[in-house]
Design brief:
Layout: H1 5-12, E1 18-20, E2 26-28, H2 35-58, H3 60-67, E3 71-72, E4 82-83, H4 87-104, H5 112-131, H6 136-160, H7 168-192, H8 197-203, H9 206-218, H10 230-234, H11 246-252, H12 257-277, H13 290-309, H14 320-340, H15 346-374, H16 377-387, H17 389-410
Keywords: Lysosome, Membrane, Transmembrane, Transmembrane helix, Transport
Membrane topology: Multi-pass membrane protein
Transmembrane segments: 40-64, 84-105, 112-133, 139-160, 172-190, 202-219, 256-273, 320-340, 346-369
């Protein structure tokens, strides 16, 4: 007895899956006419989930300036003008809550609707707190809540992706890259148009609403795969079986280090640059003032991230560790640049920052795309939720290191750019 045409039509509106006939034979439904809904939804979810996180980092310089007017300005006027609190402090507020959430989430029940409801509510609350902040603690609390929202969303959406077509990983990654470009560009543009920080944050409340629409209305509910025959179940080897229990999950983590360590290093290096050194890169007497230079360097970086996170279906790179080596070279360049000011043009910096973003985005998307192909389906949900923590470990370490390094460089005599193009 074969599967009826009606059943095939119904199945074709869902994710490709195994259909089992009464005789025990199995075949896959190849045509999925509504796959575009899942791919589009995951792009939007990636965009909205990371949007608030990006905006808070783009606004870091302004948040600090709003409540910290003091700058380091040594006697004689030969010192560097720096905020006493580096943007690394905002980075820590923006990543530590997310990291804490990512560590806990894999061990909690996978109540997807509850998780996403909390993520959407936290995202909206974060924008409101930062927008209406009249004290530094209130602004930082808004950053913290936004970070928690991003952490809940990222672990949940990536784990949930194991129930969909594997290409949702590429559209999710592209969406998170799009969040970087749209978030940093929208913030920089609105501030350039003299829109107040409060109104800027209120405008951005549309993104939590879009996230809710994409998840509950656009994304299809995954179907539970039919129960296969006893014979096919017995063919599953132990490595393919889903992980059950805390002990079994903990013992499996060591198998994920090959994915986690390179990703952690890439993000450690790039966020050390972004939050410890970007603020100190300064070109005098050009078309951008100091604050604008910081904002547009962030936009440039996010463009690189977006391009590379959208490229996995065209180009794959398995050697993620190679990207960490290149990113370390970028650290050496920026560290020496902010000390000696030897780069003759800001356009050279823009090119290097774009390259930095390409490396970071490439490491992210290639890591998770490899996992979608290499990790057994029964273990992908836990594996995705664990590996997604690794970038946050690197970012958190970068934030802690960025603060003392930033302050040490600020204490050095100011350099004069000898050659200017």
């Amino acid at each position: 007895m074969s599967v009826t045409k009606q059943q095939e039509a119904e199945d074709s509106d869902h994710n490709p899956q195994v259909v089992v006939t009464p005789t025990g034979a199995a075949h896959s439904v190849r045509h999925d006419r509504s796959l575009w809904r899942d791919l589009t939804a995951y792009w939007i979810l990636g965009l909205c989930n990371n949007y608030g996180y990006v905006v808070m980092l783009s606004a870091a310089h302004d948040i600090i300036a709003q409540f910290n007017d003091e700058v380091i300005s040594p006697e004689g006027g030969n010192g560097r003008e720096c905020h006493l609190v580096s943007t690394g402090a905002i980075l820590l507020a923006d990543v530590l809550p997310s990291l804490f959430v990512k560590i806990l989430m894999p061990f909690f029940p996978f109540w997807v609707n509850v998780r996403i409801g909390i993520a959407v509510a936290f995202s909206a609350a974060g924008f409101l707190l930062v927008g209406f902040a009249n004290a530094e603690w209130m602004a930082l609390m808004g950053v913290v809540i936004t970070s928690a929202s991003s952490g809940i969303g990222e672990t949940t959406f990536l784990a949930y992706s194991s129930r969909f077509n594997k290409n949702v990983i590429s559209t999710w990654s592209s969406g998170t890259g799009g969040a970087g470009v749209i978030g940093s560009l929208s913030y920089a543009t609105l501030r350039s148009l003299d829109v107040s920080p409060r109104d800027t944050m209120l405008i951005m409340l549309i993104f939590p609403a879009i996230e809710a629409f994409a998840f509950w209305l656009l994304l299809r509910r995954p179907q539970v795969l039919p129960v296969t025959t006893v014979e096919s179940t017995e063919e599953l080897i132990s490595d393919d079986k889903p992980l059950v229990g805390f002990k079994e999950k903990m013992s499996y983590i060591k198998h994920l280090f090959g994915y986690m360590l390179p990703l952690c290093l890439v993000y450690f290096f790039e966020y050390f640059i972004n939050q410890g050194l970007f603020e100190l890169v300064y070109f005098e007497n050009i078309f951008l003032d100091r604050a604008s230079q910081y904002r547009w360097l962030n936009v440039d970086y996010q463009i690189g991230v977006f391009i590379s996170r959208s490229s996995v279906n065209l180009f794959q790179l398995n050697k993620i560790w190679l990207m960490s080596v290149f990113q370390f070279i970028n650290v050496i360049y920026f560290l020496t640049e902010v000390i000696w000011f030897y780069t003759p043009s800001i356009w050279i910096v823009f090119v290097i920052v774009l390259w930095e973003g390409l490396l970071g985005g490439g490491a992210y998307v290639n890591t998770f795309y490899r996992m979608s192909k290499e990790i057994p389906p029964g273990r992908q949900q836990f594996a995705m939720a664990m590996v997604v923590q690794s970038d946050s470990y690197g970012i958190a370490l970068a934030g802690f290191l960025a603060i003392p390094v930033h302050n040490a460089i600020c204490g050095l005599p100011a350099s004069v750019r000898g050659v200017v193009w």
